[in-house]
Design brief:
This protein has one domain. Helix content is 57%, strand content 0%. The chain has 4 helices and no strands. Helix 1 crosses helix 2. The chain starts with 17 loop residues before the first helix and ends in a 9-residue tail after the last helix.
């Protein structure tokens, strides 16, 4: 089975203080990555967390119970259509 490696498509440039670069290099070395791999991985992790945080909903106990009952109820045709639409939606952090 042949595996293809995805090549980077764009450059991302930034400026940093020497001491910040040194800390990044230390951390990257500890996890066995180079600076670019470490920075990209860290940035992607943080970006995904921020995107996920924006989708959280906080409610009181009564509203939570209503939502749980709704989730336990059988799926309606409109809900089934909505689920299909969501599953086919493009994720902001994935590019085809």
């Amino acid at each position: 089975m042949q595996t293809q490696t995805t090549l980077s498509e764009v450059n991302i440039h930034l400026r940093a203080r020497t001491q910040d670069r040194n800390i990044i290099d230390q951390a990257a070395e500890l996890v066995g990555a180079n600076r670019s791999q470490f920075m990209l991985g860290s940035a992607l992790k943080e970006a995904k967390n921020i995107l996920l945080d924006q989708t959280s909903i906080h409610v009181d106990a009564e509203t939570f119970q209503k939502v749980m009952e709704w989730m336990d109820a059988p799926v309606t045709p409109n809900e089934a259509q909505g689920i299909k639409r969501i599953l086919n939606a493009k994720l902001p952090w994935k590019h085809d």
